[in-house]
């Protein structure tokens, strides 16, 4: 599996106590190197203003530039909300968006999967504001870049603990969005009432309890949800907003899901991409704040694509889906059929 990575990703918030720390990419990269999974690496460029403005307004981009330029050796919040930035954040965020684009471009060229080990994450960033730990919406920027170059429809698959409010807001016009997330955890969006089918585009949210949902139920939901969404959208590309803060003991998330869930999740994405879009699947790092779990989860995604015959998955019967989520999936199926 191709990796997209740049040492620059560690420069955002370096030396500033924050959950979204440089360790999230630097320690994962070191782990992948030590375990022999770091052989095929692409170094990205920075996204251009034009590429960013396919997802964000020029006014928001100008605000980010001016507010970061005004910083003098200290960190501060963007005035749009709760996003902490420092003097290097604009450069790093543009390189993160460029990393997402590089992953999509490479996968579109040869149909091989890519994993972009990037930060800051992006799925909370809306068209006019940064939120959470996110400055620019990497997934939406990359999806629009793919459409500009290739055309076609993109399905963004978000399994982060938190709802990707920004990606949902930026969907439409050939981008569909499907998500599981803790609800009503931050940012408080993503209820099933927000689900809709508009032409060929789909928004499908399956909110989960904020804690202790469990591995089997989590995977059972996705084994129904992703095939439903893909059949409705028939995408030319799948982009996974790969947040691993769903794992048990994550200090920011925690759905009580085992680290091992990354393997069947990745295999499901691989199978779906093989069926609908010639294997074109791209993973973009979102959340995940337990470093050991993050290292293991990313490695498992890579192995699911590179060593599928060696990975171990359960042969047990799929778990029953809790009634609340089963009802939502029924509504998703009805919308998909419509």
Note the beta-strand portion: 5-15%
Strand order of the largest sheet: 2-1-5-11-10-6-7-9-8
Instruction: Compute the average pLDDT.
Output: 96
SSE string, helix = H, strand = E? Answer: EHEHHEEHEHEHEEEHEHEHH
What multimeric state do the chains show? Answer: single chain
How many separate helices? 10
Report Rg: 18 Å
Structural class by helix and strand composition: alpha/beta
Q: What is the fourth-level CATH superfamily?
A: Histone deacetylase domain
Secondary structure: number of strands: 11
3D structure, described in words:
- The chain has a single domain (2-337), classed as Arginase, Chain A (3-Layer(aba) Sandwich), CATH 3.40.800.20.
- The chain contains 10 helices and 11 strands.
- It has helices at residues 23-34, 49-52, 58-69, 89-110, 138-150, 165-170, 215-233, 262-276, 291-306, 323-337; strands at residues 2-4, 41-42, 76-77, 84-85, 114-116, 154-158, 175-182, 196-198, 201-208, 237-242, 281-285.
- The strands form 2 sheets. Strands 2-1-5-11-10-6-7-9-8 form a 9-stranded mixed sheet, with helices on both faces. Strands 3-4 form a two-stranded antiparallel ribbon.
- A hairpin with a 2-residue loop joins strand 8 (196-198) and strand 9 (201-208).
């Amino acid at each position: 599996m191709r990796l997209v990575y740049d040492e620059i990703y560690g420069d955002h918030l370096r030396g500033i106590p924050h959950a979204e720390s440089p360790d999230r990419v630097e320690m994962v990269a070191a782990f992948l190197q030590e375990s022999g999974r770091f052989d095929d690496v692409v170094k990205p460029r920075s996204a251009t203003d034009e590429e960013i403005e396919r997802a964000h307004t020029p006014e928001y981009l100008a605000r980010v530039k001016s507010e970061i330029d005004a910083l003098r050796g200290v960190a501060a919040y963007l005035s749009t909300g709760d996003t902490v930035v420092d003097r290097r954040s604009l450069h790093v965020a543009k390189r993160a968006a460029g990393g997402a684009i590089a992953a999509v471009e490479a996968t579109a060229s040869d149909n091989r999967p890519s994993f972009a080990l990037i930060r800051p994450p992006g799925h909370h960033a809306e068209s006019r504001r940064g939120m959470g730990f996110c400055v620019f919406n990497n997934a939406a920027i990359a999806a629009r870049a793919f459409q500009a170059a290739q055309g076609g429809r993109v399905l963004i698959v978000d399994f982060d603990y938190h709802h990707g409010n920004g990606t949902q807001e930026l969907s439409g016009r050939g981008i569909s969005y499907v998500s599981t997330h803790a609800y009503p955890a931050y940012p408080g969006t993503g209820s099933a009432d927000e689900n809709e089918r508009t032409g060929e585009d789909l928004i499908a949210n399956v909110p989960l309890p904020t804690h202790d949902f469990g591995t089997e139920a989590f995977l059972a939901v996705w084994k129904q949800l992703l095939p439903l969404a893909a059949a409705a959208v028939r995408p030319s590309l799948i982009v996974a907003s790969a947040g691993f803060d769903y794992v048990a003991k994550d200090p920011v998330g925690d759905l009580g899901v085992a680290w091992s869930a990354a393997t069947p999740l990745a295999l499901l994405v691989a199978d779906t991409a093989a069926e609908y879009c010639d294997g074109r699947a791209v993973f973009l790092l979102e959340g995940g704040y337990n470093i050991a779990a993050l290292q293991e989860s990313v490695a498992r995604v890579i192995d699911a694509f590179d060593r599928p015959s060696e990975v171990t998955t359960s042969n047990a019967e799929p778990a029953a889906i809790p009634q609340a989520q089963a009802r939502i999936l029924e509504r998703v199926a009805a919308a998909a059929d419509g």
